[in-house]
Amino acid sequence: MEHQVLQRGSDWLDGAGLxxxxxxxxxxxxxxxxxxxxHVTAESLFAKVKEQGESVSLATVxxxxxxxxxxxxxxxxxxxxTRSYFDTNTHDHPHFYWENDGTLTDxxxxxxxxxxxxxxxxxxxxxxxxxxxxxxxxx
Length: 139
Hints:
Radius of gyration: 17 Å
Strand content: 15-25%
Largest sheet: 3 strands, antiparallel
Subunit structure: Homodimer.
Structural class: alpha+beta
GO molecular function: DNA-binding transcription factor activity; transcription cis-regulatory region binding; zinc ion binding
Number of helices: 4
Main location: cytoplasm
CATH topology: Arc Repressor Mutant, subunit A
CATH class: Mainly Alpha
Subcellular location: Cytoplasm
Distance between the termini: 44 Å
Shape: globular
CATH architecture: Orthogonal Bundle
GO biological process, one term: regulation of secondary metabolite biosynthetic process
């Protein structure tokens, strides 16, 4: 990997106070090294690691993605309760889920209007609202 890509990954980890282990740095560089936001699954990131010729187990990828979420570097988006995507854009925003190929992309936040939410049950508060808009080709 080129120096600038690794440096972006290292800076990203440093900003969250995470020690840059070899595995974390490899994954961070793949996630943010080009400066673009992305949505990945653990499996797709694992495949990319293998493609780069790196040696990281799938369990390490899962654990590292969870650690990145825990410190606020990633946002986890669950689709159908069966598949988790990890988003490098941690600001509140809606998503499109493309059923035909199983990908997740950002949807335009400025076009979404949530007029009213139900009141939270007594003793609770709303922590967040996730909007996933499922898309498929017209029949």
